[in-house]
Write a structure and sequence with these properties.
- The radius of gyration is 22 Å and the shape is elongated.
- The chain is an alpha+beta fold.
- The chain has three domains: 3-55, Structural Genomics Hypothetical 15.5 Kd Protein In mrcA-pckA Intergenic Region, Chain A (Roll); 63-126 and 214-239, 2-Layer Sandwich (Alpha-Beta Plaits), CATH 3.30.70; 130-210, Alpha-Beta Plaits (2-Layer Sandwich).
- The strands form four sheets. Strands 7, 8, 9, 10, 13, 14, 15 and 16 form an eight-stranded mixed beta sheet that branches.
- A hairpin with a 2-residue loop joins strand 2 and strand 3 (34-35).
- 22% of the residues lie in helices and 28% in strands.
- It binds uracil (URA).
- Uracil binds at residues 102-103, 106, 189-192, 205.
């Protein structure tokens, strides 16, 4: 696959894309020994790139699944100094970031990588993979409300796409319900907003699965490397996923 030179330089982690463009225009970048001053010049993985006469070291792609705890931001930094998910990866030197986000108060499966293409593939609205959540909500959910969740809920940013919903249990004393909800969209605070729209405030939320992938064997804050097979399966799921066939 061919990519723009400035993008490849930025992805190597030495600078931003803007600064990479400046470096190219200033004549500081060579491809296969030849000076390139053209923005948008395309390179492939077999090309050798030098910046200021120093060869660019290609970062290996890394893929992790993390059990995100509550009380942590799904980001690589936070201007308020709160803990972020990448703080847990002290022994990883690659420039990793989370794929999508879970709310500060949500726990569960989170994918972490340094592969921008993989992240874009999984996040693309057309490809979005099923995400299974388990929510503890206030009140007792009725059959009609379960149907409503499945058919679509009117939110300020539009009606939600078809989903799967199932009541797992009720606590009559505490007046709460445990509900499993599977959605494939990834709107901001979508699950909480869907329940709130039908009058059930979410008290606790966990993402149990992304596609086939869960957090079995991990405790909150722990992570593991994904196998090549798991990465391939996620890619295949995103590429072949047509949720319209399933709902
Ligand atoms: N939906 C939410 O409301 N919150 C999350 O963290 C994920 C999905």
């Amino acid at each position: 696959m061919q990519q723009r030179l400035q993008k490849v330089i930025a992805q190597a982690g030495i600078t931003s894309r803007r600064k990479a463009e400046d470096l190219i225009l200033e004549g500081k970048v060579k491809v296969n020994g030849k000076l390139i001053k053209e923005l948008g010049f395309k390179v492939s993985s077999s090309d050798t790139i030098e910046v200021n006469e120093i060869p660019l070291i290609k970062e290996e792609k890394v893929y992790f699944v993390m059990y995100k705890p509550t009380g942590v931001i799904s980001a690589v930094s936070d201007d308020k100094g709160r803990k972020v998910v990448t703080d847990f990866f002290t022994d990883v030197k690659e420039r990793i970031f989370p794929i999508g986000r879970l709310d500060y108060d949500t726990s569960g499966v989170l994918l972490i990588t340094n592969d921008g293409d993989f992240s874009n593939l999984l996040m693309h609205p057309k490809h979005e993979i099923d995400k299974q959540y388990i929510a503890k909500v206030e009140g007792m959910l009725t059959k009609q409300e379960v149907n409503q969740l499945e058919k679509g809920i009117k939110l300020v940013d539009g009606i939600t796409a078809p989903a799967k919903a199932k009541v797992i249990s009720f606590d009559r004393k505490k007046q709460t319900s445990i509900v499993q909800l599977t959605i494939h969209e990834g709107r901001n605070r979508q699950v909480r907003r869907m329940f709130e729209a039908i009058g059930h405030k979410v008290k606790k939320l966990k993402r149990e699965k992304i596609g086939f992938l869960g957090v079995e064997g991990l405790r909150p804050g722990e992570y593991r490397v994904l196998s090549i097979h798991e990465v391939k399966r996620l890619r295949a799921l995103a590429q072949t996923n047509d949720w319209r066939l399933k709902y």
